[in-house]
Each structure stands twice: as C-alpha cells, then as structure tokens.
C-alpha cells in the first residue's frame, strides 16, 4: 500500500529549490505590478480619480470583501500602502521572514485588487493564488536569508504535502478552465479565434502584425492553443517520467506565453504565467541551476554570507523551536494538510461551477469564503469567443476659442482618422482594461468620472491650452471575417464641461 501511495504522489513531489525560484519570481512580479500601478495613484485609487470610494461601494462592492486601501481617498495614503507592500514583497524576494512576508504580501495584494476591480485582468487572479498557496508552501527553505538561521542541510530536496498538490492542481485548473470556457465555434471548429484576436488593434503588438498576414498559420495556432490548454495539463499527473513531463509543460508554457507577449498587449499576464510554473522544475534541472549559481557567486561569498547558503533549509521550524514531541508535530502537519485539502476542494468546486455545469453549481451562501479570501477565480481569457467590437478613443476637447483638439494625442488637432498604432494610445495595460470596461452599457456609471478626471488633469497643467468641454468618443470598428471591418461608427460615450467662471 505504501508503495502504491508513493507512486501516486510522484507528480506532486517538488524540489525545494524550484519552490524558492517560484517565490523569487512571484515577489519580482508583485514588485513590478506595484511599480506600474504606482504611476496612477490618483487616477486609479484616489477619490479625485476615475473610481471614487463612494462609487466603488455603490456599484462594485461585495459585502464580504475587505480593503485597507479603502481607508482613505487620498493618493498620499495610497502611496504609503504601496511602499509597505513593496517592503514586504522585497522581504519575500530575499526570503526574509518568508512566512510573514507571504501572508502580508497576499493581504495587501487582495486589498489593492479590491480597491479597483475595473482594471483587473486574469493574471491578477493567478498572482493572488500563487501567494495564497505560497502561505502553505516551504518556499523560503532555500535561496533565502532565512536559510542563514538553520539546522543542518536536508538529506534531500524533495518535498510533498497537500500544498504541493494544491499548487499543481491550481496550474492545471487555469488551463483546463480556460479551454472549457472557449466553447465558441471560432475556437472549436472554425479556427478563426486568433484571426479575430489579432484584428483587435487595441491589443495588437508588432509580432501580431506579422502573424496576421498568414491566415492558415493563425488557423493552426488557434487549434494548437485550444488543445494545448485542454490536454497539456494532464501530463502534470503522470506518475512515470515525471522530470520529462514537467520540463515539457514548462518549456511549452514558456513558448506559449512568450508568443502571446510578442503578438498581444496583455500587460503582466505573460510574466505571471511564466513565473507560476517555475515550481515545477525537476531536480536534475535544479541541480544544474544550483551548480551554475553557486559557481558564479563564489567571488561574492564574503559579501553575501546570509544570501549564499544555497543548501540549507529555511530556519528551525516552529514545531522544533517549541520543542514539541514528534507526535504533536505529526498532528499539526496532519491538521495543516487537512485544511489545505479542504481549501483545494473549495477552489476546485468554484472552478467547476465557473464552466457552467448545472449539477455542480455552488450556492450563493457558500461563496462568502471565496469573496472574503479572494480564492474566487475565473479563467475566461478570450472566452467563450473573442471580442469583435474593436475601435479607438478620441478625446474631443473644445477650447474657449472653439478649437477642437484630441487629448488622447497630446492636444493635436482633432481628426477622426484611425491612428497608426491604437495600442500606443494606452499608458499601460491597466488603462487598456479600463477602456475596454468603459464601453459596456452596464458600466455607464463610470463615464462621467473618467471624463471629468481627464478634463481637470488637462487644465491643471499650465503647459496645456485650457479646454472648456470634453467629449469622450469611441470610433467603433467591428471585426468581420476575411480581413474585413465594418465602417467605423462615431459613438459619444460621455460629455463634460468646466464650471463657468463666477460673475
């Protein structure tokens, strides 16, 4: 029986050094995310921006959600919270007080994402879940400053627990659910999904422009994408030849997401996904990486005493430091595994419900946990079909003298002509996602806040010509089959004016 169990658990045995790389990469992505978001502190997180707190509570809030970022509508308070988050993410990167750094980084990321859900994307769910499962993983036991305060080196780097099962299953769920949600004919039979995706000028990157010229290649890649997402995760559960299957999954996923980043503007989505699979790296690969890293850091060894103990576990664990008897330690480990198992079952149920299986629907009273701890997730990337309503924004501003300029093009004279690069009009992917959500009728309440924010910010800059009125216009251009598009239609989404001068 023991031999059978050991055989079945092989796919879930991870290398401690690979988990350390997962930790480092996750922390690096969190820091990058904070750096990008910090350029829009007032716009995205303050009351003077596009989503004031009272609007958030009225329109986008769930009673079970929590956010420290909601304690104030001042951008200065947001800046302070960003600095705190960056500090703990840096601790996580270095592996200093790893468990504490993981918990706080997760809490602050949940808080930040709750503050403005309008600018969220699928990668945010995965980043949040990496930190969540990281709370239960020993990803600080290697390549960390914690490793300087340790007991003797471990006899082996292999590690298995309910948390490693949860991590592997979570990765599989991402791709399985993504594929199962892509149930439109353009994915399953027609093979036109990538054609339509690359027809969206709002996300088209230079690599996509090149690929767009080859319809048969796009058709092949559509089916390749669908079946890769649907079938490849199964290799993570094969109990024989585990190192080979793991590396196959990692290599394919790296190529897959690198290809996405070169063709579509997806923000940090591709980096989050590339970071997420590092924990799968098998022991032979980690042995090679370990040798290369240690060889290249030998010269810096005297200066990196605490950072260079590559072969030590993190620190004396809590149970050992409390001098608990072995039986008690075993009970605590069993309790932790039981808790993680229940959490994983809940996450699996949530995902099964998201693919619209009526027999597996999760009742609303059970969803509070997912909302509170943000284990809720939805992997509907370009699903069930690719968005067809493409177009570009024109910010038609009228000066006191009646001139029309486009704030979206830094105050140049107004023109309805399509820009050479629509994607270049967006400062970052958060703004691109916001502009996408801004179009929906259900989000019409957002429109005046965006319009007034743009008008105020423009007029506050003394280098800009003052404007008295702003019309947010969308030039809608629907993508059609066979490289055709509908004639662009002009839609005025919102209008706002400055207050008239006092008499």
From TrEMBL:
One cellular component term from this protein's GO annotations in UniProt: endomembrane system
Coiled-coil annotated residue ranges, if any: none
Q: Where are the transmembrane segments?
A: 12-31, 75-96, 156-181, 224-245, 251-281
Q: What is its main location?
A: membrane
Name of this protein: HTTM domain protein
Taxonomy of origin reads: Bacteria, Pseudomonadati, Bacteroidota, Cytophagia, Cytophagales
Q: Which organism is the protein's source?
A: Hymenobacter roseosalivarius DSM 11622
Q: Where is the HTTM-like domain?
A: 11-285
Q: How does it sit in the membrane?
A: Multi-pass membrane protein
């Amino acid at each position: 029986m023991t031999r059978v169990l050991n055989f079945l658990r092989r796919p879930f045995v991870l290398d401690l050094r690979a988990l350390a790389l997962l930790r480092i990469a996750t922390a690096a992505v969190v820091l990058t995310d904070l750096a990008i978001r910090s350029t829009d502190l007032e716009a995205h997180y303050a009351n003077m921006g596009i989503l004031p707190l009272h609007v958030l509570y009225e329109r986008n809030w769930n009673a079970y959600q929590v956010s420290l970022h909601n304690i104030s509508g001042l951008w200065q308070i947001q800046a302070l919270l960003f600095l705190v988050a960056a500090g703990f993410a840096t601790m996580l990167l270095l592996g200093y007080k790893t468990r504490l750094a993981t918990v706080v980084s997760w809490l602050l990321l949940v808080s930040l994402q709750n503050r403005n859900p309008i600018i969220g994307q699928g990668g945010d769910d995965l980043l949040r879940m990496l930190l969540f499962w990281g709370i239960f993983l020993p990803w600080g036991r290697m390549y960390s400053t914690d490793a300087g305060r340790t007991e003797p080196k471990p006899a082996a780097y292999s590690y298995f627990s309910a948390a490693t099962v949860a991590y592997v299953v979570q990765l599989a769920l991402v791709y399985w659910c993504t594929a199962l949600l892509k149930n439109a004919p353009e994915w399953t039979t027609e093979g036109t999904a990538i054609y339509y995706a690359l027809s969206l000028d709002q996300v088209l990157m230079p690599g996509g422009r090149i690929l767009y010229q080859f319809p048969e290649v796009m058709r092949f890649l559509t089916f390749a994408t669908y079946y890769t997402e649907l079938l490849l995760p199964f290799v993570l559960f094969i109990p024989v030849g585990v190192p080979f299957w793991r590396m196959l999954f990692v290599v394919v996923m790296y190529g897959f997401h690198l290809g996405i980043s070169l063709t579509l503007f997806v923000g940090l989505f591709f980096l989050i996904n590339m970071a997420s699979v590092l924990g799968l790296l098998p022991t032979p690969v980690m042995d090679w990486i370990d040798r290369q890293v240690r060889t290249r850091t030998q010269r810096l060894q005297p200066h990196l005493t605490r950072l260079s103990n590559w072969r030590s576990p993190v620190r004396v664990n809590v149970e050992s430091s409390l001098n608990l008897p072995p039986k008690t330690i075993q009970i605590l480990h069993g309790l932790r595994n039981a808790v993680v198992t229940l959490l994983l079952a809940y996450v699996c149920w949530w995902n099964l419900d998201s693919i619209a299986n009526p027999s597996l629907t999760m009742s609303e009273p059970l969803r509070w946990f997912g909302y509170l701890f943000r284990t809720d997730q939805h992997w509907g990337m370009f699903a069930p079909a690719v968005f067809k309503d493409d177009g570009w924004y024109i910010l038609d501003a009228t000066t006191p003298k009646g001139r029309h300029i486009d704030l979206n093009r830094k105050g140049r004279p107004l023109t309805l002509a399509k820009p050479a690069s629509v994607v270049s009009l967006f400062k970052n992917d958060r703004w691109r996602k916001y502009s996408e959500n801004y179009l929906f009728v259900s989000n019409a309440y957002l429109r005046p806040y965006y319009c007034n924010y743009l008008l105020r910010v423009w007029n506050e800059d003394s280098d800009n010509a003052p404007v008295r009125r702003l019309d947010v216009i969308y030039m809608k251009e629907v993508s059609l089959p066979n490289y055709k598009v509908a004639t662009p239609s002009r839609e005025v989404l919102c209008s706002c004016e400055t207050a008239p001068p006092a008499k």
